[in-house]
Design goal:
Strands 3, 25, 26, 27, 28 and 29 form a 6-stranded mixed β-sheet that branches. Strands 18, 19, 20, 23 and 24 form a 5-stranded antiparallel β-sheet that branches. Strands 30, 31, 32, 33 and 34 form a 5-stranded antiparallel β-sheet that branches. The longest helix has 36 residues. Helix 1 packs across helix 2. By secondary structure, the protein is of the alpha+beta class. The chain has 28 helices and 36 strands. Strand 27 and strand 28 form a beta hairpin. It is globular and about 125 Å long. 43% of the residues are buried. The termini are far apart. Among the domains are: 133 residues, no CATH class; 128 residues, no CATH class; 89 residues, no CATH class; 103 residues, no CATH class.
């Protein structure tokens, strides 16, 4: 039945409208991407990627179309003119298919090639990185140990050759299949008893195609020889004994055999019959099984396995050297460390070393985010990240580890399109607290409040670009909420407005751009809102990692961007890595597995999880910054000797600034990145062993310890200022501990200068195997046991709970000192609860100290540096002749302070408790002074600290003073 004329005319119109809508959205996506790159000044990146992908798409699609389509045309044109006379009379299945297809032959042919070209072009375009690395290859200046070729051949050339071979194999296989189908449909050959009957043209055509396939296989066999450096057959990654002595010659033999077999297939062109192609096919299969499979298996089973250590020794050594070089740990220094359990050295040296410890960071950035939020959120529509960052700032003339965060915009109090995108557009402020300065259990902020205090100098406080910024905001040309302001009468609050004056974002002052972004976000308000004018700009792609990833797609980014005040601006600092999985002989491991620990889930949003790909080469090649106000992205070459970075610089010329351009103030805030350090500690847990025989035995391998706070994941590394043995000054460092593979005691301590250069040397203190030093889990168990009574006092009737902070490990006095802050917070979950620092635990050897402050805990363990650990011993009666009003008053003050503290702790008033502890401390000092003034009797003596946990509390319990004035006899 035929449709009426009008519906028949409407169908193409509807199709055209659908096509126009689709094209509009495609165009809107591409053009708005170009506008974004133009707004950040990186249009060269966009054009390089777009042109490269378009050229690869077109080339791949056309080449596949020419090869496959050409062979289909050849098959069709070589069809027999009278197919029915060539074979038996009657109608076969092929005839029925041909009758159904032939009327639509041209349409099917063109549509099929279009679909094939689309898939092939897309697949080829996706290989744009492989192509750019190949054409811009930079020599490494180092040769692989097996073939003597520059490393760049394996990093850049070998992947490209494999890509070309895969493309050609695909093209030939598809050509064989489709050519055979065409020959079958049009009578070129028929499947009938007693066998296959084919025309000469069909036989010749298919013989040539199969011959080309076998010829490509010969080339692949030869190229596969170089791929043996990526073999995982042996004890370690890389070519093994079997690979070199069996597989390598087998590949060469198979390449020659494949050439012979290809010649036999080509001979089928001039010699009728299927004998020669059959012989060639059988020879190829048989040789692949025997030479390529059975022979290497026999060598592995009967030569290598009985003598694996001696046979693999040379190749294990190659793997060790290549792995250490590829992961940047070749210069890692392993130093034997005695790890004494009693402090070593004279009083003066210990005093000098101990002077750095009270400055250790006690604020745990993974714990105190709720504290920052409660004390510095100011308004409910602001927010802080779940995990804060650690940087260093000069405060009061001293460089201090500082816990920092920015106050970002969150959810508006009332949700609507105007509030979400036009009013609440940015966060406000930078919050910083020295990690070692605690004020009654709370951070002692040096930068806080709105407007921010200038403890670190003046700076632009507005945060338009951050980790939790809205998807997009419209700024400029209208009033936005800047920050809340207290009204003059002190009741209620007002707000201060602002209008964005930065250069960030894309102008949407014209209707065309507004139309494009309305299509991009599916939002008609972008067209209808009267608040949008010729001064308006749209901000999007606002996450620092996202912005850097867009302008530097060849980098893998560290999972922890951090803010810093640089030249009076808040700058996000992002570490960029160049990675590869093609470094010969180097161990391949999953980047995601190596960097995963307890901080990962808090640090990365689900869409930002690090890729789980295999790598065997990594460099921290780029330091990137993102301006929090205008979104400016700047890339600096950090490891400018990296050949992989230099290759990308050739491909994207001019986008990376030289290292010499890094501002001094920015350089003061650059730090050794966590993800790189995690990767390197994972590698060094095994590859600190450089002797091949010892590596084979694996008895000295280590592992990353489990986080004492969670038995399921690894302990993260920590930023902390410390002094390594032999150093003259403490350094801001990134540290971690390592334990034996099957035990929990400490095996090694690893640190790197976190404020150093790109090639900063990793230092490892290796503990003796004949001394058992507690590892992190064992130290935590000791803390939990010996501090049980003290911690139970903090859990007031079950109404509060304690949280263990980061368990820091510090070299000290010839041994290792553990320091752990303990926080307390209400147990009942509510929006107002937050943790406060309540105790500090330290452990050296088997000695444990528990104090209100780090100094208190250290004195319990070390005493007055150089003496035995001591605690005050308050006598029940004063050892003084006569009457002393000062002594009696000191007793009374101490008892009053103690009683007040107990009442405060029971009521959960930690501020009052802290004040009571200060008064108690002063009262005890007054008591000591009063006792010292009594000349007729000796001063109170110090006794060794008890080993029980109850005796190790930070606050000694004074006894009640005598009810009457002491007599002279007392």
């Amino acid at each position: 039945m035929r449709l009426p004329r009008r519906p028949r005319l409407l169908i193409p119109v509807a199709i055209a409208l659908v096509a126009i809508v689709i094209l509009f959205f495609v165009f809107a996506g591409v053009f708005t991407d170009w506008l974004w790159f133009d707004s950040v000044g990186y249009t060269s990146v966009f054009s390089t990627m777009l042109v490269t992908q378009l050229l690869l798409f077109v080339f791949g699609a056309l080449l596949m179309g020419v090869v496959v389509g050409g062979n289909m045309i050849i098959a069709y044109r070589s069809r027999p003119l009278f197919a029915m006379t060539m074979f038996e009379r009657g109608t076969s299945g092929a005839d029925r298919y041909r009758a159904a297809i032939d009327p639509h032959r041209r349409a099917i042919f063109l549509l099929g090639l279009a679909v094939l070209g689309l898939f092939t072009g897309s697949s080829t375009a996706a290989q744009w990185k492989t192509w750019l690395l190949f054409v811009n290859a930079t020599p490494f200046g180092k040769n692989d140990p097996q073939f003597g070729l520059d490393i760049s051949f394996f990093m850049f050339t070998y992947p490209f050759i494999r890509m070309v071979l895969n493309f050609l194999f695909t093209a030939v296989i598809i050509s064989i299949v489709l050519a055979a189908i065409v020959h079958y449909l049009y009578g070129g050959f028929r499947l009938q008893s007693p066998g296959l009957h084919a025309t000469r043209a069909a036989r010749v055509h298919l013989s040539v195609l199969v011959g080309l396939f076998v010829l490509l296989k010969a080339v692949a066999y030869w190229v596969d020889r170089f791929g043996l450096v990526f073999s995982d057959r042996g004890k370690t990654f890389g070519a093994s004994y079997t690979d070199i002595h069996a597989v390598l010659p087998a590949k060469s033999i198979l390449a020659i055999i494949a050439l012979i077999c290809a010649a036999l297939f080509f001979a089928g062109v001039v010699r009728p019959g299927g004998m020669l192609p059959g012989v060639g096919l059988g020879l190829l299969v048989l040789s692949a099984v025997l030479v390529g499979g059975v022979y290497p298996a026999l060598v592995e089973q009967f030569q290598v396995k009985p003598n694996q250590q001696s046979k693999e020794q040379e190749y294990i050594g190659k793997n060790i050297a290549a792995t250490r070089e590829a992961y940047g740990v070749a210069s890692a220094k392993v130093t034997p460390y005695g790890a004494k359990t009693q402090a070593q050295g004279n009083q003066q040296s210990l005093q000098s070393e101990a002077s750095t410890i009270p400055g250790v960071r006690l604020l745990d950035p993974t714990v105190v985010s709720p504290t920052y939020e409660q004390l510095q959120q100011i308004k409910g529509y602001y927010q802080f990240p779940e995990q804060l960052d650690v940087d260093r700032y000069t405060i009061d003339g001293v460089s201090r580890d500082t816990v920092v965060a920015v106050r970002e915009i969150g959810t508006p109090p009332e949700r609507n399109w105007i509030n979400d995108h036009l009013v609440y557009t940015h966060g406000f402020g930078f919050v910083a607290s020295p990690g070692s300065k605690i004020d009654q259990g709370k951070p002692d902020f040096v930068v806080k409040d709105i407007p921010p205090t200038n403890g670190l100098g003046d700076f632009e406080p507005r945060i338009y670009f951050g980790e939790h910024s809205p998807e997009y905001s419209i700024v400029g040309g209208h009033k936005e909420l800047d920050y809340p302001e207290q009204s003059n009468n002190g009741q209620g609050s007002g707000q201060v407005d602002t209008t964005y004056a930065g250069k960030g974002g894309v102008s949407i002052g014209n209707f065309f751009n507004r139309l494009l972004y309305a299509g991009k976000y599916g939002e008609t308000n972008l067209l209808l809102s009267s608040a949008i004018n010729d001064q308006s700009r749209i901000l999007y792609n606002r996450d620092p990692r996202q912005r850097v990833q867009q302008v530097a797609p060849f980098l893998t980014l560290d999972g922890d961007p951090y803010p810093a005040i640089v030249n009076k601006r808040v700058q996000w600092i992002v570490d960029g890595y160049t990675m590869s999985e093609d470094y010969p002989y180097a161990e391949r491991r999953s980047f995601g597995d190596m960097t995963r620990d307890t901080s990962t889930d808090k640090l990365l949003a689900p869409q930002q999880q690090q890729p789980r790909d295999q790598i065997n080469y990594i460099r921290n090649s780029v330091k990137a910054t993102v301006d929090a106000y205008d979104g400016t992205v700047t890339l600096y070459a950090w490891d400018d000797k990296d050949p992989l970075l230099r290759t990308w610089e050739k491909a994207f010329g001019g986008i990376i600034q030289p290292k010499s351009k890094i501002p001094t103030e920015l350089k003061n805030h650059l730090r050794y990145p966590e993800d790189l350090f995690k990767v390197q500690r994972d590698i060094l847990s095994q590859y600190h062993v450089t002797d091949a025989n010892a590596f084979y035995g694996a008895q000295d391998f280590w592992k990353v310890p489990e986080d004492p706070a969670s038995t399921k994941t690894k302990q993260p590394p920590y930023y902390v200022t410390l002094k390594m043995p032999g150093d003259q000054q403490p350094r801001f460092s990134l540290t971690t501990t390592l334990v034996p593979t099957s035990r929990d005691n400490l095996a090694a301590f690893m640190a790197v200068d976190a404020a150093g250069e790109a090639d900063a040397q990793i230092s490892i203190l290796q503990l003796p195997s004949d001394t058992t030093i507690p590892g992190p889990k064992q130290a935590q168990n000791t803390f939990d046991t010996k501090a049980a009574s003290v911690l139970n006092e903090l859990r007031i009737g079950g109404t509060t709970e304690t949280l263990n902070g980061n368990l820091l490990t510090l070299p000290f006095g010839g041994g290792l000192l553990y320091v752990e802050p303990v926080y307390v917070q209400p147990k009942v979950q509510n929006s107002a609860r937050y943790p406060t620092l309540a105790r500090v635990l330290v452990m050296f050897g088997n000695d444990v100290g528990i104090g209100n402050t780090l100094q208190d805990a250290l004195e319990q363990v070390f005493g007055q540096v150089g003496q035995q650990p001591t605690t005050p011993n308050v006598p029940t009666q004063p050892n003084t002749p006569g009457t002393s009003t000062e002594l009696t008053q000191a007793y009374a003050n101490a008892q009053k302070a103690y009683d007040d503290g107990q009442k405060a702790i029971k009521s959960g008033d930690f501020a009052a408790y802290g004040e009571a502890q200060k008064r108690l401390e002063q009262a005890l000092k007054d008591l000591q002074s009063a006792l010292g003034q009594q000349k007729a009797a000796p001063s109170p003596t110090a006794t060794p600290a008890p080993s029980s946990a109850s005796a190790l509390t930070a606050t000694p319990t004074p006894t009640p003073p005598p009810s009457s004035t002491p007599s002279s006899k007392s």
